[in-house]
């Protein structure tokens, strides 16, 4: 997979290599009309990965450069959001029906599904008219800005600071998410978990067996929180006074289904979150930095051992000592 930083490369070069690969994948995904929906989904994943990369390296970048790149990615993502969001909510309705089984509340489920299909159709029409081409053009336009992506110092120190900051913020979001049980707090934690998952993907080459397991744990937690967020959106839709998806009794039964599913999902998320964010931010970041330095040192040693004896690397030349 292209979304990996190479410990054998200078850090800025490794970052640019990953960024260009993601931009290329996103553009190619949108350029295939027969697979437009999956293309939008894949392009949005690339944009999220780029955002996670930028947050990781932020301490080593000039703040205006970080802000500029982040905003340009956000604008592209917003243009693609309606087509993907409509499809995601249809999936959420189907999943809720499977998870809670038959029974009261079926009326709103069927009405919701029909309404969301119309919404998806409208979003897909807009996608074909302009949204996809606008996003493709913007992806090409942002490439020169990523060509200047660099961190100072050009090593892991900037990433260690970014990793610690992101991990600490996400850990704090977890601690604040459940006491009040507000949907907004859980959604904020979910965004942090998504960044953590993708940052662990980036850094996995420094110890693949350990960090790949962490990637899977964070990905699983993100999915649980995503399901919870989708149910919150469905509940809000059904509760909107200007929207009618069933009788008051059917609506109440549907909302009861949602609360039951919320409870199960949040219990699972709490358990997984306690495991994933048990460690404090400083020792966590220092541990990952140690893994990276070991991997980078091993890569440099391997390169030195394979270098022919008669090749002198620039900077290695020594002036003979006078006798």
What does this 3D model show about the protein?
The chain is mostly helical. It has one domain (11-302): CHAD domain, CATH 1.40.20. Helices cover 79% and strands 0% of the residues. It is built from nine helices and no strands. It has helices at 11-30, 36-57, 63-100, 106-147, 156-180, 183-203, 208-239, 248-276, 281-306.
Q: Shape from CA axes? A: globular
Q: Find the CATH topology.
A: CHAD domain
CATH superfamily: CHAD domain
Helix content: over 70%
Number of domains: 1
Compute the separation of the termini in Å. 54 Å
Strand content: under 5%
Radius of gyration from the CA trace?
A: 24 Å
Q: What is the average of the pLDDT values?
A: 88
Layout of helices and strands:
Elements: H1 11-30, H2 36-57, H3 63-100, H4 106-147, H5 156-180, H6 183-203, H7 208-239, H8 248-276, H9 281-306
Features:
CHAD domain, mainly alpha, 9 helices, globular, 323 residues
Brief description of this entry?
By secondary structure, the chain is mostly helical. It has nine helices and no strands.
């Amino acid at each position: 997979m292209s979304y990996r930083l190479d410990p054998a490369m200078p850090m800025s070069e490794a970052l640019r290599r990953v960024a260009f690969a993601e931009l290329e994948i996103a553009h190619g995904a949108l350029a295939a009309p027969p697979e437009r929906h999956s293309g939008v989904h894949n392009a949005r994943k690339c944009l999220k990965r780029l955002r996670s990369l930028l947050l990781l390296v932020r301490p080593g970048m000039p703040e205006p450069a970080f802000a500029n790149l982040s905003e340009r990615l956000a604008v592209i993502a917003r243009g693609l959001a309606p087509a993907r969001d409509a499809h995601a909510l249809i999936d959420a309705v189907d999943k809720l029906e499977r998870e809670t089984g038959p029974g009261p509340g079926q009326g709103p489920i069927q009405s919701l599904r029909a309404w969301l299909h119309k919404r998806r159709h409208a979003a897909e029409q807009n996608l074909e008219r302009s949204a996809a081409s606008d996003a493709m053009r913007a992806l090409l336009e942002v490439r020169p800005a990523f060509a200047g992506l660099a961190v100072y110092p050009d090593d892991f120190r900037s990433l260690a600071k970014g990793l610690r900051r992101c991990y600490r913020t996400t850990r704090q979001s977890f601690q604040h998410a459940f006491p009040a049980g507000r949907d907004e707090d859980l959604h904020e934690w979910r965004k942090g978990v998504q960044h953590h998952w993708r940052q662990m993907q980036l850094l996995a080459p420094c110890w693949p067996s350990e960090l790949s397991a962490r990637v899977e744990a964070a990905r699983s937690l993100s999915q649980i929180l995503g399901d919870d967020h989708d149910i919150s959106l469905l509940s809000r839709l059904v509760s909107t006074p200007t929207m009618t998806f069933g009788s008051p009794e059917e609506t109440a039964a549907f909302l009861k289904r949602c609360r039951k599913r919320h409870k199960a999902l949040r219990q699972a998320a709490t358990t997984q979150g306690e495991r994933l964010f048990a460690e404090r931010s400083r020792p966590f970041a220092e541990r990952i930095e140690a893994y990276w330095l070991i991997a980078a040192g091993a890569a440099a040693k391997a390169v030195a051992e394979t270098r022919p004896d008669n090749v002198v690397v620039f900077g290695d030349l020594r002036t003979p000592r006078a006798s």
